[in-house]
Amino acid sequence: MSEELREDLPKVIEELEQKCKEHPNSVMAFHHLGLVYMKAGRIEEAVKALEKAIVIDNLSSESMINLGAIYFGQGDLDKAQEMNEKAIAVNSDSGQAHANLGLIWQQRSDFDKAISAYNKAIQCNPKLASAWMNLTSVLTMKGEDDRAITAARKGLELEPDSPLGHNNLAVALYFKGNFSEAKIHMDKAKELGYSVDPNFVASLEEKLA
User: Fold this and answer.
1) Which residue of 36, 54, 70, 137 sits 20 to 30 Å from the alpha carbon of 206, by its own alpha carbon?
2) Domains, the chain, with CATH or none
3) DSSP code of 194?
4) For 84-125, how does the pLDDT look when each residue is reduced to its tens digit (9 = 90+)?
């Protein structure tokens, strides 16, 4: 978060809090207040604001998704799953909610369900780069190297400067035995600020020696 945005947050929060007081049934006011609280790191208040948005409108799938993201960040996978499933019940075409479920299943090491969720996310929104990139990770874990490489390349088509995308492609190429190209993407990931696993770096350098 830029310093300029950080400095503006208190003013934005004050304005949104006032708007919520003036319009206590405005789902968008509480939703946006929740998002700004999240940016400010005021997580408990963000939860309350997003919960209020959902009380006002039980079809507010975006509020459900963001509330699920908070729970995921807190390590509460059950609540995170519940919120994203509610969002999907409201909007079955929500690529982000399906992608979030993929992350939850991936965290639980249920890779088949994770792949299914990521594929559903991509079906809903083929331009959701994060779904392609996370799908890459799971496919690599399952030893499906060709599919992992295809998914990684698609993710990078959508976000060419994604550190995660370059790292995941590097790993997929490594397991496929394409060490030279793997190093290109590993170096790019590092250049973009990704903390590449030192063990992976050492192993790849050994293969290239």
Assistant:
1) 137
2) 1-57 (1.25.40.10), 143-209 (1.25.40.10)
3) -
4) 999 999 999 999 999 999 999 999 999 999 999 999 999 999
